[in-house]
Amino acid sequence: MRHEPALLNVIDVEATCWDGQPPPGSVNEIIEIGLTVVDVSAGRRVSRHRLLVRPVRSTVSDFCTELTGLTQAEVERGVSFAEACRILVEEYGAAERPWASWGEYDRRQFARQSQADGVAYPFGYPTERNHTNAKAVFTEACGLRRKPGMAQALQIAGLPLEGRHHRGEDDAWNIAALVLDLLGRGVWPGRQRGHGSSTSNGEGVSPCRTRVARAVPPVRER
């Protein structure tokens, strides 16, 4: 019998931001949703996607453009937040499919903006139900005292950073690579060694401890 693939959505969002406090009346709003679909059973990234989202209570600052590469003109051509949530549910199974992000920021930003905009939270309630904090899993697996940013985690794991950091689509793709590395080593929640990626060292050793000493100092990132 052919089994359906076990899929995981890996999501990274970019939001309006400023070098300091937001202007009066402005709030952080999602302007890009990057999504990589991972086939957990096969241990591979199967597709990558990008949704641009139009902000309504803020604009893209010069600082934000420098960080993310996104401009106000570009995001104005995006969909509404409500439409983005609908797409996540209807096209990517967000309400049922497990998902992961690097840290808790993405989940909390979705929850805050859903409440503020009167839009149903796309991943189901409670908000933690189907979510895995990949940063926390990586930190525990590597025996680290501090939680690393995504770029530093890639260096610790010996993986390349593909694309542009702080571009949601690229970040989701890179986070998915870290998820697959953890899957292959048998330390992803709910998965046993031997499932997914073939990168396991087979010795029950932390995937990162031998590399931590060579990792670069932490960089400023969420």
Describe, in plain words, how this protein is organized in 3D.
- With 222 residues, the protein is of the alpha/beta class.
- Helix content is 33%, strand content 15%.
- It has 8 helices and 5 strands.
- The protein has helices spanning 62-68, 72-75, 81-92, 105-117, 134-142, 150-157, 168-184, 209-212; strands at residues 7-15, 30-39, 44-52, 99-101, 131-133.
- Helix 5 (134-142) packs across helix 7 and helix 6 packs parallel to helix 7.
- The chain is globular.
- The termini are far apart.
Brief overview, please?
With 222 residues, this protein is of the alpha/beta class. Helices cover 33% and strands 15% of the residues.
Give me some keywords for this one.
disordered C terminus, 5-stranded mixed sheet, 8 helices, 33% helix, 15% strand, single chain, 222 residues, alpha/beta, 5 strands
